[in-house]
Each structure stands twice: as C-alpha cells, then as structure tokens.
Amino acid sequence: MEKRLAFTGKSQVTCETFSPAPLEKNQVGIRTRHSLMSTGTENIVFNRLFEAGSHWDRWVKYPFYPGYANVGVVEAVGSEVTSVKKGDLVVSRAAHASWVTVGEGQCVKVPEGIPSKDASWFALAKICAMGARAAQYTVADSVLVIGAGPIGQMSVRWAHALGVEKIACVDPVKSRLEFARRGGAQHVFDKGIDDSLDEIRKITDGGPRVVVDSTGNEKAFVGALQAARKYGRVVVLGDTGTPSGQHLSPDLITRGLTIVGAHDGHEDPAWNAPIILRFFFNLLQTGRFRVDGLVTHEFKGEEYQAAYDTANTRRGETMGILFNW
Fold first, then answer.
1. What average pLDDT does the structure give for the chain?
2. What residue ranges define each of the domains in the chain, with the CATH number in brackets?
3. Helices 39-46 and 304-313 sit at what angle, rounded to 10 degrees?
4. What local confidence, expressed as pLDDT, does residue 32 receive?
C-alpha cells in the first residue's frame, strides 16, 4: 500500500494508505523521492486563512491533498509513453505521496547532475518565473523583493539570473535574509517595509523600478506602492487569502504606478512550464540560480504532524521543508 498526506479539516492532517489505479496508456507511475512543502500555500489551506467566497474557499474541499512539488523516479509507463522511461528522475506537480500517477505531459525529466533535493524547487521557481515576466526586467534594473520566504527567495534568484543590477530584499526575520544574499540580493533590511523606505530609496536612486510583493500578506501591499519609484511597477506575486484587506494608496495616482498580478496559471505559448523548467534546470547546472542550503528541514512522510507543526510554529527558522519518501 502507498501513502499520501491529506487535510481532513481545518488544522487536521493525516497520512492515509491507498492503492494506485492501473496505468492508462498515456500515464506515468512515479516512485517519489522528495516532495517540497509550499509553506505559504499549505499554511493558508491548512489553517483556512482565507475569506468566504474567495478562490481559496472554492478550491479547498475535504479531503484536500496538499503538495505540488514532487520529485521521483519513473517505475512504470503506459504503452504510448515515449518521452520518459523507467529509471528517469522526473518532476511533476503532484501531491505529497509515496507514489504518484500523472499524464505523460505532466512530468519533466530532470537533467543528469541535478540532485533530487535541488530539483524539488522547480514548482516554486516556476511560479516566480511568472512574477519575473510580469516585472519586465531590463538590463541594469532595480528591484525590491518584499518577503524572504520561499517565494521571495525564488524571486531574488530570478532577478539575479536575469541581470538585475540592484536587488534589495526586506523581511523582519533576519535569518531569512542570509539566504537572500546567497541568491543575489546585495541589500537586505531586517525590518518591516515601512521602516525601510528611506534606506531603500537611497540605494535605488529614489526607489526601485520594480517591487515584488511575495508575502501573501495583505498589509504589505501599501508598503509596496510606497516603495516603488515614479512610474514604477508593483508585481503582486504572493496570493493572499484575505484580498479585502488590500488597499490602494495615493501613490498609485501621484506617481503613475503600474500594478500587475502574477500567478502560476498565467501561461502562454512563449512562457509555460516546459520552457520555464528547461531554463530553470539550465540555470541550476550553470550555477546562475543557487538553491543549495535552502532546504532547512526534512521529515519522513509519516512525520507529517511534526512537519506541519514546524511550518506553523517555527516559520522564522524554516525555509524549505522537504518530505523524504
């Protein structure tokens, strides 16, 4: 019997057993090695930190099977599968489970030489690639990333890989900022955005052209608007569960700001999962996108309660939380 994690109600998680269904001709059976917790998304879902009527409310139904960053080895393939074979290491947007079955087009082979733990960041990197495109970075650009959690870390690294000259990151949790420095941030501020504005404006010639709000905290939005320079661009990448708490400030009009939302599903023929993941893996191989050291905690699948307790009560100590199957 295989195992998978399930949320059975608010702040309730269990590990249930299941038997995988027989493969269809275009499906791939994968033995999971690792699955990375998306701490922002999963904490919102786990604790039901969202408003009634929101898209979160429509999405979360019980049992809810969390996780979307699965890395494993192909153990079985359907009769018409040609792109992967048994023994290949692949990534898929599948849940936290010891075995997952996905369509052939839903898994991507990991190039040789990339460790499974490093590859596990693929999903969060893909999400933040949407934010990088929305930012419309130019050569020698400047950016402020608000929040140094996993989404903020990926945002810093995309900015660095794409040639942004000045990268700043703000987060009141000081320990997170060292990870941001490793990823390419030259300026970090271990305090709230409101208390960092003067310093940020000084090192970015009046304010960054781009501000990325990676927090998912509705209160950070006004600070993002205040930080951007005249005619700047604010990218809302963190998806809050309480959007009614996000409010505009006079900065939108007085400084002619552009606000753009970025989301995982904003794909098109020029920028989609296969293209992004090919690019991401290339950046990993060439050292232009560093994820080493970002996994701070590992748990076995059956240690699910300890994993979610850690994610909920020790956020300042965690970055990547990995399930080892």
1. 97
2. 2-121+291-324 (3.90.180.10), 126-261 (3.40.50.720)
3. 100
4. 98
